[in-house]
């Protein structure tokens, strides 16, 4: 994942600042972990078998107090969510959820575009050389896909010449991987190679977004390029960088890559080698979650639109929910919510430096006092289809999880359950009527497992509706 290298490239780091929960208990840094040995992996698999067996026998209930008095039958029969069920379920639940998320302006250039990548022939052999070669080509017809992603994409994606100049002047190759093919990261853009499958999925996503006027938190793809080197075609994606500029001046700065499985014990960062934190680390750092108090978005005229108070958290949850539903319809999974959290001292002018991306304010307790923090966020890594089982662990996950979406499970899982678990991060506990007519869910969440990363009233309201299965039963 290309965002794993952002902190190292931009010089961001976390200091010794310790965050506290509301009861002022000091939090510690995540424990160091080692790469599991074969014996440890065997133990992991044994735990998975044990948990699946336990889930089939136990009667799990949803972990939220507001639904305790519900009379609906919430039993879990352990049956798998079949592909045939997905379209029907998606068509039935929350039919009107997109209402209120549309904007009232039009980008003319979006309607004139097709969805093909700009193709160039070159003898160069590396990603930086390919970008440099673009200066010698006529790229006036290359499509700007930023408008597909609304005002965020329009604001974040510059002209191709400006992107090339920015990336070549400022970016560094990420560590790891073969030289010449590593992602290039600048403060504004991330440039990475795609394989043909990812390229095809990007085309599919861009077609789906064509003409869309819905606000979105999907990380914008600015350009899709193809470089023909002999008989081989190399596909390149240029995307907006979500990390905040100026954060290196702050006392605290940390990036989290979140997928929703905060109880999967290997979903945590190696404190020696990883610059990006994960779900286990997020829960340890923010044991009561993060309450968002204001959301700022790029606006129509490249200004900022703002949502304040309860409306801010509700907008955050509602938009992520609808974005996830779109990805589920396309069969996409293994995406992440990337969140950059940094302190705000007023020294760096963070807000003014980052008007081209979604940001939010949140008050978090540190050192016994409430401190103001700034977040940037978006959904990244959008191009893996559920039919792709890459490598042993992917195949194992697909086979072993039985399409479940427990917060204790490893990645990846099929697209529909993956979306349900993704929504659980901001309070959604979705239930649905399965093929047997039973109101069920793949979360199987015990009270001891309950954790909401970003609480909101909107998510709670919709969780109650889904919990009763009224929406999925058509009542």
Automatic annotation (TrEMBL):
What are the GO BP annotations of this UniProt entry? phosphatidylinositol phosphate biosynthetic process
Q: Which residues form the PIPK domain?
A: 120-398
Recorded GO molecular functions are: 1-phosphatidylinositol-4-phosphate 5-kinase activity
Q: Which domain of life is it from?
A: Eukaryota
Q: What would be one Gene Ontology cellular-component term for the protein? A: plasma membrane
The protein's matches in SUPFAM superfamilies, at most eight in alphabetical order, are given as: SAICAR synthase-like (SSF56104)
Name this polypeptide is given: PIPK domain-containing protein
